[in-house]
What does this fold into?
Amino acid sequence: MIETAVVETTVPTMPRLGAPAPTFEAATTHGTLRLEDFRGSWVILFSHPADFTPVCTTEFLAFAQIAPELKKRNVELLGLSIDSTYSHIAWVRNIEEKFGVKITFPIIADLDRKVATLYGMIMPGESQTETSRCVFVIDDKGILRAMIYYPLTTGRNMDEILRLIDALQTTDKYGVATPANWRPGDKVIVPPPKTTADAEERLKAGYECKDWYFCMKSL
Ligand code: BEZ
It folds into this structure.
């Protein structure tokens, strides 16, 4: 009899922009939480490799620092790593003791990697066990709007995370796009025309146009 080897090929799931963010129920430092519990608020779901590590500690301090700015924008923070709730509790207590900063947002204890797998947070080329530094921006209707993936060794930039939130919320409010390096107060981009008539019309609309496809305006 010829024996055939079965090679298991598991394709990791990757969440998709513009689609509903994968739902979950998870143990956190604030008790059991479901993604649906955040409906009506925007959520920044972010993973870190491990508790009690220096880069992650700087990131938690930085997330805690921007938390009030995020609150003003109706954004909640939700951390995640594959450490236990006990480890998370001990770490946030240590951060408060050593740095005088209170971590007020919940942290998922993803021991079985259920959420990490759903969101593709583990990059086997970097680590088979730890989650990379991922950021998922989920809007108030539960739609995944942006993803940022950083490697284990690079701490994230909070200015960019705030800028991203501002850009997405500006897009939603005004139906515009935002250019490279955009900051609130800068000119925005009028979406490109879809018809020749629109192209003609927008040249007369009072926008600042370099050409029919490139028009900006102030808000
Ligand atoms: C850190 O947070 O310091 C860290 C974690 C994993 C790999 C490298 C650095």
The pocket of benzoic acid is lined by residues 49-50, 53-56, 152-153 (CB under 6 Å).
